[in-house]
Design goal:
Layout: E1 2-9, E2 12-20, H1 31-49, E3 53-58, E4 64-71, H2 76-96, E5 101-107
Parallel strand pairs: 1-5
Antiparallel strand pairs: 1-2, 2-4, 3-4
């Protein structure tokens, strides 16, 4: 099971933590793990490329990935947009494969 936790503050993406494996296919050929990985890595890359946004993250071992986001004033619409992309994409994977992944979204 892939466990995903996305945290928002005032509607702005602040962190994402992903852990586990879907175990729906052979290692390196699991479409569920691939989908989650592509969405998370794309969000990471888009955030990292943006001036005024700082992303700190780690992938300590296979099956783990996390990042935390801080941004300068004025970057709120950007963070909201990347957060919406990431959330919708990951929730779509969960809708298609509810036995293999779960997402918990918090907004404070």
């Amino acid at each position: 099971m892939i466990e995903i936790s996305i945290h928002f503050e005032d509607g702005l993406l602040r962190s994402c933590f992903i852990e586990g494996h879907a175990k729906a296919g052979p290692r390196g050929k699991d479409i569920i793990c691939a989908a989650v990985s592509v969405l998370a890595r794309t969000a990471w890359q888009v955030l990292s490329a943006r001036k005024g946004v700082t992303v700190l993250g780690k992938a300590v071992k296979r099956g783990e990935f996390s990042f935390e986001v801080t941004a300068c004033k004025g970057e709120e619409p950007f963070l909201a947009g990347v957060g919406a992309f990431l959330t919708e994409g990951l929730e779509s994977v969960v809708r298609d494969y509810p036995k293999n992944c779960r997402v918990v979204i918090t907004n404070v």
